[in-house]
Each structure stands twice: as structure tokens, then as C-alpha cells.
Amino acid sequence: MNEQQIKSISKFLSLVLRHQPDTIGITLDANGWTDVQELLTRMHANHKPLTLAQLKTVVDTNDKKRFAFSADGTMIRASQGHSVDVSLGLPPVTPPEYLYHGTVGKYLDNIRQEGLQKMSRQHLHLSRDKQTAISVGSRRGLPVILTIRTGQMHRDGYLFYLSDNGVWLTDHVPAAYIEF
Q1: 3-class DSSP state of 157
Q2: Can you list the pairs that 167-171 forms with residues at least 24 positions away whose Cβ atoms lie under 8 Å?
Q3: What is the pLDDT of residues 50-94, one digit of tens each?
Q4: DSSP-based three-state secondary structure for 6
């Protein structure tokens, strides 16, 4: 598989494992897992043939580690970013004092008024470093990096989770905790 094929498969897996499993007729369990063999069978039936070796390549080479196999390799799920109702089973953890969020300028007025919202996803995503936030924000244009006072938020009772691929998750960031 070439890089473009891997990227295309990764995008499709993001769609079915994070947002629309019914696109190919799979179901996700309460924790977002689906059977690997069922996924491969359904991919083939929907004219998107994929071998186990190719699936492993996509999972192993994804720079953002968007997908994970279960310990025994029989199940797969998205690491975070779901818009469907699943529980990743992540325990609340203490965040670092500051985390970052990449966005673009056209959203700043709304963010100043309402803070950061999770929108259609289950959680809002925050980055541990500015470079990752720049990468995230760059997907929609010239990035603006917001510094989030997550240590203070945590001390004030807000919960944070750390996904398997290192993305920090929370439900909402009020504007008072954002440094613009």
C-alpha cells in the first residue's frame, strides 16, 4: 500500500469507527470496540476490500494513533473523537498546568463568549504541546493557538481524561480559563 491508500483507508476507518458504523453495517459495543473479522468482512461487502495485514499497517503507521487493537488483537476501536455514544472507559486524570487548543481566527469571537465546546463529539480535544495544536489548527486555515489553564480548571472541579493516543479530553472549557 502506498501512502495515499493508507490515508484513504484511515479516513474511512475514522468515519465508521468514530461517527457512522452503520455505513458498512457494523456495530460498536459500549466501549467503541468492534470485531476485526466482522469489520474486514463488511469492508469487503461494501467494495472496500481490506486484508488484516493492511489493517495492521494502517493502525501501526497512523501518525496520530487514531486506532487501537484490543490486547488479543480481535477487536478494534477509534482511540477518541467519537460522535456516537461510547464510553472509552478512561479514568479521570490530573492534567498538566497548561494544555493547548488549535483553532482558526473566525471562531475566536464565539470562543470568547462561550468558551470551547465539544460540539458533536463526546469530548473536546486538547493538545499537550503547541506544535500539535498548530498541526490541528492548520487543518482549517491559519492556526491560532489558545493556551488553556487546565491545572486551574482541574482544581476547580473539571474532569480530564487522557486517550490511549495522548489526546487530552474534557467536556467544556469556559472562556475564563483560556488565554487568547
Answers
A1: coil
A2: 167/79, 167/80, 167/81, 167/125, 167/126, 167/127, 168/95, 168/99, 168/125, 168/126, 168/127, 168/128, 169/80, 169/90, 169/123, 169/124, 169/125, 169/126, 170/123, 170/124, 170/126, 171/118, 171/123, 171/124
A3: 999 999 999 999 988 999 999 999 999 999 999 999 999 999 999
A4: helix
